Amino acid sequence: YDPPINTGYNTYTSPDGRQVTIHSREPICPHGDVIGGYYDRRLGLYVAFPKIMTQTLGFRRRCFYITTSKDFDSWSPPKPAFVPDERDDAGAVARIEEARPILDVPDVPAYRRTEFYGVGVYQAESCTIAFPWLFTISGPRHPGPQEGPGEVQLAVSRDLKHWERPFRSPVIPRGKPGEWDCGFFETAAEAFRFGDEIRLYYSCTNHGHGHEKRPGGPAPDHAYGIGLATWQLDRFVSADASASGGVLTTVPLVFDGRRLELNARTHPGGKIRVTLCDIAGRPLDGWPTSEAVCGDSLRHTVIFGGRSDLGTLAGKPLTLRVEQVDAELFTFAFR
């Protein structure tokens, strides 16, 4: 099916969530069947993630682009944000094998590939975290949809232009075969902060994307559900050091604020110490290496020679050298 050239995604507005009125005079970008969106408070932009089928690595695949607007009227040309690469395809076999008990279409190796099915986000303080939904296609059903499992992964960007996906693993664990959350995953458009937790609603099934439906409705063994994934505040990933220790040095940075806080966890006998350095990595005069940070806290205040007030250094470029022993560092922030 080739849709008319004037079709695509349109914007709508509503004063109450019930009465909906079309807003855009023409589509904001090309046609697809899934789109996500949110308002980026940090960048002051309306953001949309439209699905646009794109030819890549020998297949026409589900890919997600990004388009933004300052006023909800004029939208930027859509640019690719989530396009499967060779690393995604290399992991397809393992993802299919994990979900093998719930797949009911024979594998077709020549058909196997990875695509993206949707995108959710979380607005962190200094970046945007995305939750791309991966669809691993194991084979086709004729007639019918493609078969394969889904999963939710993690991506991050500071400017909405360059996206990094260092971890190609699920951030929401898959249930055991037969459980409601062992099959195909989707997320809400946006995760949110609730106290000291990050919460993300998601839905899932106990079957793959192409599971056969019986005449008259869903198969009796179909199960669907809505779940809630939670993380402690900003604890999506961490930089870890074993008992033998390790050192992390930041890129040069300029900060506002008066104190340094670490979101970190140390294990028994573990510790974290921070040295304030210039952009060449030389320790700053008058600022000794910090006292040891120990324990598990979202907000460790770092003390340097009895001082925590770093106000005299604000606005000046520096680097942090973080020495860790048997510890996990999630984030740092100047407050």
The residue ranges in which pLDDT falls below 50 over 5 or more consecutive positions are 1-5
Q: What string, H for helix and E for strand, traces the elements in order?
A: EEEEEEHHEEEEEEEEEEEEE
Task: Please give the count of helices.
Answer: 2
Strand count, sense and closure of the main sheet?
A: 5 strands, antiparallel
In round numbers, the mean pLDDT is 94
Q: Indicate the percent of residues in helices.
A: under 10%
Q: In whole angstroms, how far apart are the ends? A: 55 Å
**Share of β-strand residues:** 35-45%
User: Structural class, judged by helices and strands?
Assistant: mainly beta
Number of strands: 19
Could you tell me the radius of gyration in angstroms?
A: 23 Å
Principal-axes geometry comes out as globular
